[in-house]
Amino acid sequence: MAESTRLRLDRALARLGLGTRKEVRRLIKQGRVEVDGEVITDHGFIISDPAAARVVLDDEMLTLRKHTHLMLNKPEGFVTAHKDNRYPVIMDLIPPEFQAGGLTSVGRLDIDTTGLIFLTTDGELAHRLMSPKYQVEKTYHLLYQGQPFTDIDKEQFRLGIRLEDHTVCLPAELKILTGNAVQLKITEGKYHQVKRMLQATGREVTYLSRVSIGSLMLDPDLTEGDFRLLTRQEILDLYHLVRLEVDSNYL
Ligand code: URA
Prior knowledge:
This protein has helices spanning 9-15, 21-29, 96-99, 123-130, 151-159, 193-200, 232-241; strands spanning 7-8, 33-35, 38-39, 46-47, 55-57, 60-62, 69-74, 104-105, 114-120, 138-145, 173-176, 181-186, 204-213, 216-217, 227-229.
């Protein structure tokens, strides 16, 4: 097994969502944490091989995380960025202890789009999920104004919509839901892509929300503005999807 990078104990616990850096330092000070059979009260303790370490909190064995992987249910009015001069940004919704290690979002949603944002500190995973080479499907639910979609439109999406600037999109799957609601699956991430695809068909998007990225589905229990860490299975599925190796003991 490849040796993993050294990790500070307080950082390791905060990364698991066990509390803020201050809260996990208190847990450590209280003598509730053991590393390889020894009670550790120094929050700066360095775990020299996190993939192999046996870390226990209150008699419960923990699986340490190499990376931070989060899903956020983005509300309207937030820009997908770290900083913006005019608007609130999605990073305002993520506490600092989860932002360490270079947390970045996989793709962007427009300020008025809601739904699934996946954030990760693993640059290679992010790159592959966005790369056209891996053909990762993003699913959107949307409402629109204009002529009702028909099977002919579905076929047009399947063949590739030509945008107004003449760019031809990769095949997309349009599913007619009810009334003026549709689901659209695309494998690219061009600027304002969904809105421009509908515009090219003479319609206008009035509501847009992303519900999945590849195997990762927006948790229906996550209210807008909330985030959560990915489960072990969700992480494994994403790595598998883009054919990346992962140490299942240290995700
Ligand atoms: N397509 C868009 O037009 N906007 C988004 O936010 C995402 C996809």
